[in-house]
Queue: 2 jobs
Job 1
Amino acid sequence: MKADKADMAREGPESEGMTMPLSMVHEGAKAVLRAVTGGHEMRGRLAAMGLLPGIELEVIRNSGHGPFVVGVKGSRVVIGRGMASRIEVE
Amino acid sequence: MTKTLDKTITVAVAGNPNSGKTTIFNNLTGSRQRVGNYPGVTVEWKEGTVRRGDLSLKLYDLPGTYSLTAYSEEELVARDFLIKQQPDVVVNVLDASSLERNLYLTTELMEIGLPLILVLNMTDVARDRGLTIDAGLLARRLGVPVVPAVGNRNQGMDDIIAAVAEVAFRQVSLPGPADQCRDAGPGLASLTQVATGGNFHRVDYGNAVEARLETVSQLLPDARHRRWQSIKLLEGDEALLESIPDPGVRARITAESGAFAKEVAEDSDTVLARLRYDFIGRLCHGVLRIPDRSERTLSDRIDRWAMHPLWGVPIFLTLMYGVFTLTFGLGNPIMNLIDHGFVRLAALISGFWTEGTASPLRSLLVEGIIGGVGGVIVFLPNIVLLFMAIAVLEGTGYMARAAFVMDRFMSKVGLHGKSFIPLLIGFGCTVPAIMATRTLETRRDRLITMMVLPLMSCGARLPIYALMIPAFFAPRWQGPILWIIYVTGIVLALAGARFLRATLFRGETTPFLMELPPYRIPTAGSLLVQMWTRAWLYAKKAGTVILGASIILWFLTFYPKPPADYKVPEGFDRAAIGSETRFGDLTDPAAIQSAELSYSIAGRVGRILETVIEPIGFDWRIGTALVGAMAAKEVFVAQMGIVFAVGEADETSEDLRTRLRDRYSQLVGFCIMLFALISTPCVATFAITRQEAGSVKWALAQSVGLTLLAWIVTFTVYQGGLLLGLGSVMGGP
Ligand SMILES: Nc1nc2c(ncn2[C@@H]2O[C@H](COP(=O)(O)OP(=O)(O)OP(=O)(O)O)[C@@H](O)[C@H]2O)c(=O)[nH]1
Ligand SMILES: [Mg+2]
């Protein structure tokens, strides 16, 4: 538990430069979700669908505009572009 | 000695959206609730019963939800049912092909402490993807029965009943002594065996969190769901916090969750969510084996086209065009058959009276009932085909793709793609479509979608088009005209939403988040059930509302009869009756009919209406039909049938379409469809809008607003058409 916590502090969005918004990830690439900037509610909805920090996801569709499709644990989730820009991945 | 249950067991069917709950519910109870391959089909709880021997179960099918923190109306329905109604057993249906995600809700269900049964549904899909699941090990670890099933093939249903019985028996037996417990039924032995699996009976959040949970739990006044409540409070659930009466307790709980958030230096709900997934990870270790390949599924390959940034929208529009023209084209031959049947029936009934005698009863039967109800029943094949097509869209999973491709337009008007699903359902019937807005996360989006929903042309308006289009347009124009009507509806709905967003409902767009199900082939059975249900509903409507309305409208059109010294008012019907002639002196049958109509209630009301509807090209006949259409849109067709049958001297020689063509121009024909599309929705829509919006204000705003819009649009088109010289009556298509 304690170790976990320390990890989290290091992996915050302001640390090592490799994080970027999900909206910049190319189609077909895999990424690890790091943080979600947004309301309590949005984080809750994402977490319930399996999208929470530490999870690996795959961008199935990113056509430059319109919503995203990501693959997470065998299911496909559509994420609006606005929301995708607030999801930090690595 | 077997202990029997002396009461009905209440069973809630809960689980993630689209996991197959309703499919299983229908299998078990023999119900015919709507099933579809997209999340959010079921939006209210439904009841059904199961009887097997002594066993009597009351099943409740709940809307799907990803967690017990409800983010939208339909999730709230599910959560409130589970928390407040306290079912005896919860059947948790899981999509086995996405087991870990689905188990998230299970951990929460374990926390509310209701007796659980897990159904691993869609094991066929899991197998196809190469997943293996050790259901026995999962059951032993969790200490609850786990039943593998394939819902759409009716496999595993008896096992579900057996497991429910087993758990329910254990419930009644628990308070008794141990030996009685052992007598309680054949299933118990397996359960005692089951109850020995490691530390998986509840989610262990680790010492630090457990200590805090304990502290919060001590503070709680309500003994029910203590653990679940503590967890929610630690997560910072505000609604739950508000429900605690004592402000002192509230403050201490707030302090506790604040301290917790500080300790973990992160959002407390994210931490708890991760701990739940950690638990699930340990639980699934050795239970679930996922193959190492990550390959593109067939669905992904179809979606390369269906969700293509360039082709997605044209594909959607082409599909829609296909749906509506097929509905029309395939339906018409059968329609003509039914029509013939009614003509024969009318002739048969007329035959009982001698030629030329005026009998009110004959007129009621032939002109009122056959002309009205028959005129509507005729379109049954079109309606059935339309709903069939919608069922296919819903069953294959294309619905969610349409939401995806339309998100581009939806976000331009300030909504998101998910709002498009209710709009599509609205092509079938506005009432369930308004219910379907429950899946939208914010009340604002819900209200906007509800307000513009009647602009999506529903099935009840199809008979109007099916009557008017062939009357006024040559065959090669019929498909495009129908399509223009439908697209006009979509465009107006989007424009309306944009308008509302810019005026009454401002603010940021709600984030779009939706699960995308894999494509499935809908079972023939489910399509037939949907078709049959719809056909039956339509026939029932024809036999009740439309029959009633037809009889009333016939009375209004037939009575009262003018006295001998009645003079036809100026301008009525443009008929050359001559305003000086007394009714008693008229000899020409056509003139008599006209005079009688002008004296009838419908004629008088219509004349008053004419002042308002003349600028949009309508006469009093259309006016009365439009008033009747408020009860149900199909009544428009019924009333046109009645007015023209009552109002014409010879009843058999010409059909309604020819009469329409003789009287109105193509432009008026088009305007009638336009007005019917946009104007006041039916009373059922009014009632459901009132219920779902929570106030009669919104329903009134919807009706008045749409009618005004209809008038303005039709006025523009009609007057514009007149200027272009399109106003002449051709007498032939
Ligand atoms: N392949 C497969 N498909 C299934 C199975 N069970 C159900 N389905 C299909 O899955 C889809 C969803 O079924 P529903 O019963 O509507 O799901 P639900 O859980 O009630 O969904 P919501 O009401 O939206 O929460 C439908 O297309 C079903 O035909 C199964 O065991 N295997
Ligand atoms: Mg359902």
Job 2
Amino acid sequence: MSRKISMKQAINEALDLEMRRDPTVIVMGEDIVGGTGAKGEDDAWGGVLGVTKGLYAKHGDRLMDTPLSESAYIGAAIGAAACGLRPVAELMFLDFMGVCFDQIFNQAAKFRYMFGGKAETPVVIRGMVGAGFRAAAQHSQMLTPLFTHIPGLKVVCPSNAYDAKGLLIQSIRDNDPVIFCEHKNLYGLECEVPAESYAIPFGEANVLRDGDDVTIVSYGLTVHRAMEAATALAKDGTEAEVIDLRTLSPIDWDTIVESVERTGRLVVVDEAHPRCNLATDIAAFVGQNAFGALKAGIQMVTAPHTPVPFAPSLEDLYVPSADSIASAVKRTLSPKGASPRIAA
Amino acid sequence: MAQNPFPLGKDELLKAYRTMRTIREFEERLHVDFAKGDIPGFVHLYAGEEACATGIMMHLNDNDRIASTHRGHGHCIAKGVDVHAMMAEIYGRSTGACRGKGGSMHIADLSKGMMGANGILGAGAPLICGAALAAKVRGDRGVGITFVGDGASNQGTFLESLNLAAVWNLPVVFVVENNGYAESTAMEWAVSCDSYVDRATGFGMPGVTVDGTDFFAVYEAAGEIIRRARDGGGPALLECNMVRFYGHFEGDAQTYRAKGELEAIRASRDCLTILSERVIEAGVIGRDELQAIDREVNGLIEDAVRAAKAAPLPVAEDLLRDVYVAY
Ligand SMILES: Cc1ncc(C[n+]2csc(CCOP(=O)(O)OP(=O)(O)O)c2C)c(N)n1
Ligand SMILES: [Mg+2]
């Protein structure tokens, strides 16, 4: 059975199903239940935006509120994972990674390799990413490139409810540490999602739209902007293929390269800052492995090299728009070498 | 006129009242305008907690630094940040304290010694150790005050800073603003020790707990430990027990509170009422004098909102400006 639910509900459902299936799955985070130790209602919050609401009634103490001590509880989730549990730890806004990054990149990410292949750390660290929420510089970042840089971490960033559910279930079952990035501006977006359990394998991109003229690659919120751009371009007769990466580490190189070999043109869209991000990574890979197929220079559309501004008038300029993606596509269609130099 | 039994003269008392009233009016106006949909983003209100910021900041000058929290409007106003600039910032205007780039959670005015509200819990504590270190190195008798909520007092950054300040004998005061909750989670559950005084003792510094709704209690306790820090006596911790009148942030239904809790604290623990009653009862200030201040403050906030709404928005060129000093 399938019905329309939001990405927020899909994440809640994935947690519920996996907690039912596997008693070693526990969920922890700040106010993910809410009202702990207080005299009012139980399950008073269910997470800051209500993603885990209702799970406490179903699973009781397997949902744990934490003190505001990210180093300690994220580290404890990692330690518990190394000792046989499958913790899902919520880091409310992934910007707060700054407080507890050591436990993630020096500990969790390295155990497997550093201990000679003898350790498994099946932890999921999930939290919000992305701009557009008027949440300002410390609650809006797309830090995905920091995570993909680290060997040992897997990095997931769904663009819709269907993928969020299947990818979160896969993340929980996966035996490596996973950073699960939820774009806060996609929480309310609904699509058809089966009620039953299903897992989407890592490293498989989703081709959302077929086209022979240009390949647009993105992930998260900007996938939707890319689709808007593709629809607009189709009116002028340009058919864009739109690829949603879904997982950033591992990444589906084959789908990207096969598409570019057919279209000869590539636009990569990334909400992260322009230096050393997913866009530069993909551009470099295609440049190295499919240079012969390219009919034009690769174009990148990213956020600017600035922190996320608070003012709505600026934040609206910050996130890549459908227009900026369409313009980038048009640059790939102009003769070789004619595109202006785009400053980072 | 009766003899003044308070540790401050009448002018200073009026100033304290004006500061507290300004904070209250500022926050209540935001509460209303947020509900109307006029204000973008996250807004955490300081209403109910005014005596704490005010009682402490009365001892500071522009050379003293403070590091604030996500609930920073009260700290800003008490430290002398311009109310118009604050309002414009919250409205995302280019006339804002941070030219619209920071918003409610990041208001700063370094010229006033206000090192910023902060979106990262516990982040102010190490920064204020740095401010205090700079004052100590310069020998200018400056002090640093960091505010931290009961919830954020469990951050490693905060606990490490207590130790660092003690080891370096820094002129720092750590103010724990204990309003009983971190978002929806009770302080009694989340903080392992029974008293912050014990925590301070564990880190080798004096700790004091006061009723943070009593302006005079805060004022006197803060005065003593700030003087001590200024004179080279080292850091201390001040816990202010207080109440928050609104949700964690605007939009919070507050179902974690006991039934009747909000009504009760508003009735019996309103720091503005407590201060007014005391100065009026002592015969030092007349009710009409306070009411005159109320009217002026109301006008000030009204003006600030009108000016903010009419102010220009930041434009495209502003997006790329000020990432570096030079690049
Ligand atoms: C490092 C970090 N973790 C979590 C948060 C999310 N958060 C913002 S305010 C808050 C509660 C803070 O409670 P407390 O310190 O008691 O301050 P209060 O809000 O009561 O003034 C939380 C969890 C954050 N901003 N930064
Ligand atoms: Mg608190």
